[in-house]
Design a protein that fits this description.
Layout lengths: L2 H8 L8 H33 L6 H28 L9 H19 L4 H29 L5 H25 L3 H22 L15 H7 L8 H22 L1 H7 L6 H30 L3 H20 L3 H27 L8 H28 L4 H18 L8
Length: about 425
């Protein structure tokens, strides 16, 4: 590979990407999210209720399992990102990890379907998180690898649209799968099929061995630390994402139990699908438009701030208006806010990365702000629900945390 090719692999991209590339990357992104959220929205909650030992609350089992998986995710995303940055395969830096991650995730989902104890369930879910995060780290890095800054809001919008469609698809597959085993297998099959167009039809950029960053274990582990003092904009952007995602995670974690135990809705699994679909419709109405609008104005922070405020207001509805109508309004409003946030926040993050050679690793570190809330949410939510006021307090706290996160975006200086 020539020096010019290496420069292309590491340089800031300037050529706009086409619709086919954007569509196929969005599809694999959606497939990964389906592999995560079919279990998160439906299957893990049902499995926790089925496997919880006598005297142990199903909420506690779900919290322990999802927390363990999220802890694995926090390590896997930046670690596999660092390995992706150092990959010099003829297939490119990202494609080998997409293939391995999606295939491994499908196997892990099938094994999870056969879990017959809480421990086996936890191991299976950790395997899903480990493998799908390998693929997700590579998919996320493709954005700054290939997309010029002026197009990132739009492409980020399509990736966000695929994300929510993946959540809806995963929830639908989990519901229509005919039971736990069928639901897990359907999500596994969808993950594999969704990755094929990108892997088969698009050639990845190849990094020559001579341009590879230091690859020793010490260098890789040391590189996982990004100094907030040296890179304050990245630190504030990370904290903004963390708190907004934590508020969202608190709102969604016990949704099935909230619908069943507080609103007394029949068929709570089916009702979760209805709310998820409504959320998806409103999200799709804003996610691409928000990204394109952000590109055209050249600004990111006002969009993130406004989206965070809207999401906090929606979560507040769940605290103050505990009716089926309130849940419908909250789901719709959350979609509006999260749509804008998803597209514009991703574009903002790519504009605070320290170095092109470490894009996947740095984005993996940033993506800890997606995973850490999955660990923190169960720790916070369980005592709030059982000892400190119930679901009303849970959703009030979630709204406050999300609002603080939205306000912190104003501390970023290097992005408009």
């Amino acid at each position: 590979m020539s020096g010019a090719a290496a420069q292309t692999a590491l340089a800031e991209p300037s050529e706009r990407v086409g619709r086919a590339w954007t569509a196929s990357l969005s599809l694999v992104n959606g497939a990964i999210w389906a592999g995560w959220y079919g279990p998160i929205q439906i299957l893990l909650a049902l499995q926790a209720a089925e496997l919880a030992p006598t005297g142990t609350a199903k909420e506690s089992v779900l919290a322990w399992v999802t927390g363990a998986g999220a802890a694995v995710s926090m390590v896997a995303n930046p670690l596999f990102g660092a390995l992706s940055d150092r990959t010099t395969s003829r297939l490119g830096r990202r494609t080998p990890w997409i293939v391995a991650g999606v295939a491994g995730g499908a196997v892990a989902l099938v094994l999870l379907a056969g879990a017959r104890s809480v421990a086996a369930m936890a191991v299976g879910w950790c395997g899903v998180q480990l493998t799908l995060n390998a693929a997700f780290a590579a998919v996320t890095a493709a954005l700054p690898d290939r997309v010029p800054p002026g197009q990132r809001g739009a492409v980020g919008g399509w990736l966000g649209a695929a994300q929510i469609l993946g959540v809806v698809a995963g929830t639908g597959l989990a519901t229509a799968g005919g039971g736990l085993a069928g639901g897990y297998r359907a999500c596994a099959a969808f993950a594999v099929l969704g990755a094929l167009p990108y892997v088969l039809l698009h050639r990845d950029l190849v990094l020559p061995a001579g341009r590879r960053p230091a690859a020793g274990p010490v260098a890789v582990l040391r590189g996982l630390w990004i100094s907030p003092r040296r890179h304050p904009d990245l630190a504030w952007a990370w904290l903004t994402r963390l708190l907004i995602n934590l508020g969202n995670a608190l709102a969604l974690l016990y949704l099935l139990y909230y619908l069943r135990d507080v609103l007394r809705r029949p068929d709570p699994g089916g009702v979760v699908l209805v709310l998820t679909a409504l959320n998806g419709v409103t999200l799709l109405g804003t996610v691409v438009v928000g990204g394109i609008w952000s590109d055209r104005t050249g600004r990111r922070k006002p969009f993130v701030l406004g989206a965070g405020v809207i999401m906090a207001a929606a979560t507040g509805l769940l605290a103050g208006w505990q009716t089926w109508t309130g849940a419908l309004c909250a789901a719709a409003l959350l979609g509006v806010g999260f749509g804008v946030f998803t597209s514009v926040d991703l574009a903002l993050m790519t504009e605070v990365l320290p170095a092109a050679a470490d894009r996947a690793k740095d984005l993996g570190v940033i993506n800890i702000a997606n995973s850490l809330p999955q660990v923190a949410a169960p720790v916070l939510a369980a005592p709030l629900v059982h000892h400190l006021g119930g679901y009303r307090v849970l959703y009030a706290v979630a709204a406050a945390i999300g609002l603080v996160g939205a306000l912190l975006v104003r501390r970023i200086r290097g992005v408009a």
